[in-house]
Each structure stands twice: as structure tokens, then as C-alpha cells.
Write a structure and sequence with these properties.
CATH architecture: 3-Layer(aba) Sandwich
CATH topology: Rossmann fold
CATH superfamily: Vaccinia Virus protein VP39
Strand content: 25-35%
Number of helices: 6
Helix content: 25-40%
Low-confidence stretches: none
Number of domains: 1
Mean pLDDT: 95
Structural class: alpha/beta
Number of strands: 9
CATH class: Alpha Beta
Amino acid sequence: MDPINKTIRAYDKIAERYCKRTKEEGDRDFQKEMLLKTLSHLPDDPRVIDLGCGDGRDTEYMRKKGVDVVGIDLSKSMISLARSKYPRCTFIHSDMRETVFPEDTFHAAWANASLINLPKSELSHVEKEVYRILEPEGIFAFSFKEGEGEGFETSVIEEHERYCSYYTLEEIRKKMNLFDIFHSEESPNKIFGEKFIYCWGRARGR
């Protein structure tokens, strides 16, 4: 089975349990800090897309900060959960590798722990799509698990297998062809045994 399809099927089964535990045991304060740092690079009244929005907690946080934001996720269960929890937000069932949005729609894209479930061969497709839908010099903010390798693994949270990719910061810099990474920060604590790195990239001139 395709790694992404298998992973999405897993999330469809565990969506509510997964989101509950990550919210309770994840480093939410640090994630909010990273969101605020992202917003600090944007103009007034920014437009942002939340890639792999999960249950929509980041989408809602940005909405409350006055951001014109839309959340997308490939898991129908995640989108259903997000819509029920945050009815004032906009959520769309969509693939981050190919969205419905026209060019130059957003000032920024936010991908919090969502690129980690993509095979490394798919990262360039996401980068190209993000570049397309961002305005010139738009910001791509994302996080990834620090390490090496990729493949299916059973989560410490749930029993279902999901695909996971690990990167070093140097590897990410080499793989990004359309964005210049201008800042990065490591999570101060491990989240479910994993170290995360957050990066901010600015779209190169067209």
C-alpha cells in the first residue's frame, strides 16, 4: 500500500485519541511560541494556510490572533474533528502536495509535525506547491523530527503503523530548493521521545 494512504488510514482510525494525547502531553507552550514567531514575520492581516492541520488547534489559535487562516488535512476524520471543535474556522479536506488554491494566495504556510509523515521523495512536491500558493517572499514555517532514515513505525501513542521521515538540519537545507532557511529552533524537550526542529524559510525571488 502507498505509504501516505496507509498513514492516512491510520489517522482516520485514531484521530480523536491521537489529538487528545498530543494536546495533553505535547509541548503546547513551545508550539504556541513557534506560531507567534511565525506571525511576527508576516504583514498586518496575514493570510495563512495550516498544512496537515489535524484537529485544528493551530488554525484556531491563529484565527484568534486575527489571521485569515484555512486548515487542510488529508485525513477525513481529522477534518471532521476540527470542524466540530472549531466551527468558526475554515477546514478543507485536501492534499498539501496539490491544493485547490490559486497562485499568490497566502503570506505563509505553517506545517506543524505534518511533513514527518511524508516519504522524503514527496518533500519536493510539497515545497513546489507551497511556493506556488505563497505570495512572493512568503514564509514557509515547518517542523520535522531530528534524525536519519524513513519508514513505517508503530507510534508510542497508538498501535497503528504510520510512515515517518527523519531529517538533520543540514539535510533539510540541501533539500529546500525554493526557500532560503533563515532561522531554526530545536524543541527544548523531547516530545514522545523525539526531538523536533522548527524552521522558517523565505521564498526565493521568481
